[in-house]
TrEMBL record:
Transferase in keyword set: no
GO cellular component, one term: cytoplasm
Modified residues (4-aspartylphosphate): 55
Protein known as: DNA-binding transcriptional regulator NtrC
Pfam family, one: Response_reg
Primary localization class, coarse: cytoplasm
Record domain Response regulatory: where: 6-120
One term of GO molecular function: phosphorelay response regulator activity
Gene transcribed to yield this protein: ntrC
One GO term of the biological process aspect: regulation of nitrogen utilization
Residues annotated as domain Sigma-54 factor interaction: 141-369
Organism: Aquamicrobium aerolatum DSM 21857
Amino acid sequence: MTISGTVLIADDDASVRTVLSQALSRAGHEVRAASNAATLWRWVSAGEGDVVITDVVMPDENAFDLLPRMRKARPELPVIVMSAQNTFMTAIRASETGAYEYLPKPFDLTELITIVNRALSEPKSSGREMRSEEVPEPMPLVGRSAAMQDIYRVLARLMQTDLTVMITGESGTGKELVARALHEYGRRRNGPFVAINMAAIPRDLIESDLFGHEKGAFTGAQHRSAGRFEQADGGTLFLDEIGDMPMEAQTRLLRVLQQGEYMTVGGRTPIRTDVRIVAATNKDLRHLINQGLFREDLFYRLNVVPLRLPPLRERSEDVPDLVRHFFRQGEKEGLQAKHIASKAMELMKRHPWPGNVRELENLVRRLAALYPQDEISAEIVEAELHTQEASSPAALSGGAPDDITISQAVEIQLQRYFAGFDGELPPPGLYQRVLAEVEYPLVLAAMTATRGNQIKAAELLGLNRNTLRKKIRELGVSVYRASR
């Protein structure tokens, strides 16, 4: 059943007003459109309209300045904010000021109509809680691609919750930056942010590091020591490289997540914990579960909100923004100001960046420090990229043959898998486990290649669209829509 209502639109671009008005009218809604904030405020304050759609930048007033007044006058009125600025801070400010939804331009009209219908059908409430504090200006995440816009919107929704988040992505994609953004712009920002890298701690010290220990708990324990859970109390605990956590520590962590309390090593009294958990990994935890190296029940405890960070090669349109950002950072640190020639920038956008954003940052810093020219040419970038590739781990180890088939790659991996059991056989059910492991990357690759178009992906895979949708839900595949 379609619920109709009156939609108020505010945008100084006449073509945007026309397109939105026509689409919403066809969907059965009454539409009133204005070119400035003053007219919109007059309508809202007079009690008109059931939903508001407004651009951020208006000729007479910024929507983020107008929103608090609208929320105060009519707290039940859903306000959808749209913007061509497309930055992380835009999404955060939209959430901070109580917007119902944030849409980066350009957006899908079908998606907009769905959001409007949802806003009209939801029970009216007193509105979302707003913060009075100013949002800090520095922007922790950079990029305007469709993939990053989806991440910004998810993060903005998570800021006012304590939900556990599992961040996945290749090394160098910025997993800790995202975790810090969740903390610094969330409800726990006044508490501590404590990070622990599971891969960097000796296995026999992980439990002591996480939960602390009492004096005399083991040889060398000269005094009581607070663990990371205690240090992070009231704040956020970031568990990086969670896939490297040993099984015995996983069992204790699961108990903490289930019961909300823990005991120090050598302790006898349970301690209540009040932390938000954000975990991250560059490994396929499903693969580790199938190998018996990661607890499935812990995975589901941590994977409440899965967030996949795309590799830089999937968002190459963000390279120019990232390059400018890193050059500006270099200037603040005393390096000479630089800019990249257009042909050099194209080379950088086409590069696969196996080290992702971290690799790009290192290159930009090197360019700023080693070259006296104000403009970095394509020849310089090409030479640096060639040197970078020649010294990469893959190049130094000989790399993998380019002509290897999928069948050969699977055979190699299975040989390594069996070898890992030291002559013993792996657990029963191997056939289904292998098929399940292949299914996830296959569906992800198809969705990535079609930029999130499920119809094209289903056709590519030879699947019914409903079957593909079911598999996306079951496998937890993150879908990024292309901007239009």
